[in-house]
Known about the structure:
The chain is of the alpha+beta class. The chain folds into three domains: about 1-75, CATH 2.40.50.100; about 100-190, no CATH class; about 225-420, Chloramphenicol Acetyltransferase, CATH 3.30.559. About 30% of the residues lie in helices and about 25% in strands. The protein is built from ten helices and 20 strands. Strands 9, 12, 15, 17, 18, 19 and 20 form a seven-stranded mixed β-sheet that branches. Strands 7-2-4-5-16 form a five-stranded mixed β-sheet. A four-stranded antiparallel β-sheet has the order 1-8-6-3, with no helix packed on it. Strand 13 and strand 14 form a beta hairpin. Helix 7 crosses helix 8. The longest helix is centred in the middle third of the chain and has 24 residues, at about 200-220. It is globular.
Amino acid sequence: xxxxxxxxxxxxxxxxxxxxxxxxxxxxxxxxxxxxxxxxxxxxxxxxxxxxxxxxxxxxxxxxxxxxxxxxxxxxxxxxxxxxxxxxxxxxxxxxxxxxxxxxxxxxxxxxxxxxxxxxxxxxxxxxxxxxxxxxxxxxxxxxxxxxxxxxxxxxxxxxxxxxxxxxxxxxxxxxxxxxxxxxxxxxxxxxxxxxxxxxxxxxxxxxxxxxxxxxxxxxxxxxxxxxxxxxxxxxxxxxxxxxxxxxxxxxxxxxxxxxxxxxxxxxxxxxxxxxxxxxxxxxxxxxxxxxxxxxxxxxxxxxxxxxxxxxxxxxxxxxxxxxxxxxxxxxxxxxxxxxxxxxxxxxxxxxxxxxxxxxxxxxxxxxxxxxxxxxxxxxxxxxxxxxxxxxxxxxxxxxxxxxxxxxxxxxxxxxxxxxxxx
Length: 423
């Protein structure tokens, strides 16, 4: 009999609150299925089960806060005999579909769609919001829930920008023709301060405490060193312009995905930076689980991972990036995405920050930062010309690497950006 325990969703997590069961006694589960929703200081996370079998017993009621490692349920292997059990009454699952995300179910209810006839494209066949939106006839990249009988008017580019920047299109003042929200409106709204309700402010206070504890631990235990590298972005941006000119708006790439792709490709030659360090001993990872820092509405951030980023081409990486940002801001992240990043990328370019000196997220040993892409004087062939430049930064653990290796890693990132490739 396997035990399903309260998972650790980060180095700073000591306990979590079970919010809902997604499976009940008698339900068959396969490794990777979503079995429960757990709330931490950083939001609600969908938790996968790591043993296949049948749910034998639920040990904890929803709403209960328990320490990490506490048994929450018992999973019986299919080969085991059924034993008498005293279980919590099987919760009512909100959908008749085997696996679907909360946002997918909500959109389906709003559009009066039957999910039982829909094939999911998410992990393990899970139905995602995009699956439902595609059937409904409009892929809502920004995740905006529109009141019945109304249709929010926004350009495709504005919706894509809103998805990445976390802007609620309903709160954006349109300046386009006939009241259409355009990309410039979204950019302007992203820079404006966000006013929170009292409940939201309380949630952010808890998250801020969790972030403070993790960052204080990082600075206390990890000997950071920093390196900066100015990168000429003209080749990458010209490549991006040419590729996007051949694509429909919905499939266009963002500069951010070029940063992510460059880090994934460069880290191959620097395995000591793609690692976890526990008790002073570093353990490099063969897989690149790329953490992406995502700012949340009104403050706070999370850094979930794009799992196995080394297996993805640039289009797949773009799709995973957008999906991750949407789910992070909707509180629909999975436990594996929160607990497994091997190296993290953060960017404050959208806020006009020239360079960022990030703090390493334990137990990782490195984090890469990118500032804003800005036009500046630059020397090319002994002539001063105007070029679009970005400052890339690296914060790394001096116990596992040094400035020489860190500098070479940043140079490798710059090389990838100067010669971007489709795969």
